[in-house]
Amino acid sequence: MNTMEELIKKMIRDLREQVKEKVPEEGSFPVVYERYENPDKSISLFHLILKVTAVPVKGYENKRYLEFAVVNYPKSYGCEKELGLGLKQEIVEILSHEDLYQKILAAIPAMERDLQS
């Protein structure tokens, strides 16, 4: 990947396909994610992660979280941002929005600051 924008667009496309194939309509499932090394060395983040997880709350077995996360090694923690909550099809729709990559790009500076503090 040449740019952060290209990488995030790829992550979104690839995760959307994984969600269609691997995420059930309800119940728990292993985390489905795309994880890449940060291509922009001017940003002090090591990995970028876009993931979909099950909601572990009784009564919400059909809901899924869409989250973006960053990790900055050697620190042992990261920072996450919820991008959506909904049924499988709603998550696929969020992953299909043209402006999702812009929301992710806009969140990165604040997430980087949170990890530095």
Secondary structure: number of strands = 4
Give the end-to-end Cα distance, rounded to a whole number of Å.
29 Å
Report the principal-axis shape: globular
Give the SSE string: HEEEEHH
SSE layout and pairings?
Blueprint (H helix, E strand, L loop, with lengths): L3 H19 L9 E6 L9 E8 L9 E8 L6 E9 L1 H9 L3 H17 L1
Antiparallel strand pairs: 1-2, 2-3, 3-4
Helix pairs in contact: 1-2, 1-3
Question: Would you write up a description of this structure?
Answer:
The chain has helices at residues 4-22, 88-96, 100-116, and strands at residues 32-37, 47-54, 64-71, 78-86. The chain is α+β, with helices and mostly antiparallel strands and 117 residues long. The protein has a 4-stranded antiparallel β-sheet.
Brief synopsis:
It contains 3 helices and 4 strands; from the N terminus they run αββββαα. It has 117 residues and is of the alpha+beta class. The chain has a 4-stranded antiparallel beta sheet with strand order 1-2-3-4.
List keywords for this structure.
117 residues, 4-stranded antiparallel β-sheet
